[in-house]
From TrEMBL:
Residues 1-37 are annotated as: Disordered. InterPro entries: MAP1, RibonucZ/Hydroxyglut_hydro. The lineage of its organism: Eukaryota, Metazoa, Chordata, Craniata, Vertebrata. GO terms for molecular function: actin binding; microtubule binding. Residues 22-36 have a biased composition (Polar residues). This is MAP1A protein. One of its GO terms (cellular component) is dendrite. GO terms for biological process: axonogenesis; dendrite development; microtubule cytoskeleton organization; regulation of microtubule depolymerization.
Length: 155
């Protein structure tokens, strides 16, 4: 369908075949293949939360090509469900390598996991080359019966 026809059909039938404002392909059942990458320039933000607890189900290099953040939060802590996903962490490296500019990026893992430790050690040289810093938490917050690592981010 030509772009002008697609545009008209979206306006005449708003919301149909859209998921979170992104055009979907109803014939596909795969989450990654059902989302088309929006055209246009990348979006620059200070802080981005990697979707779905850093699961590989719907985050790939295209996310990191389009959403360019100074800080990315990685919150996965469920190895049985592939969270965080090594593939997503690798996608960050691949996506950022195509930015064309060497902006500082800080990755903030909310949990100390084997996946993030191995990824950090195995790709440390590439991280340095791409100006990516992984922030280790040095503080702990204690609330009622729970304690967890914390990071302070200043803008």
């Amino acid at each position: 369908m030509p772009e002008d026809e697609l545009s008209r059909s979206s306006h005449s039938n708003p919301g149909k075949s859209l998921v979170n404002g992104i055009k979907t392909n109803p014939a596909s059942n795969s989450p990654k293949s059902s989302l088309s990458v929006p055209m246009g320039p990348p979006v620059y933000v200070d802080l981005a939360y990697i979707p779905n607890h850093c699961s590989g189900k719907n985050t790939d290099p295209e996310f990191f090509k389009k959403v360019r953040a100074s800080y990315y939060v990685v919150s996965g802590n469920d190895a049985a469900n592939g969270e965080p996903s090594r593939a997503v962490l690798d996608a960050l490296l691949e996506g950022k390598s195509q930015w064309g500019e060497n902006l500082q990026v800080t990755l903030i893992p909310t949990h100390d996991t084997e996946v993030t430790r191995e990824w950090y050690q195995q790709t440390h040289e590439k991280q340095q080359e791409l100006n990516i810093m992984v922030l280790a938490s040095s503080s702990t917050v204690v609330m009622q019966d729970e304690s967890f690592p914390a990071c302070k981010i200043e803008f």
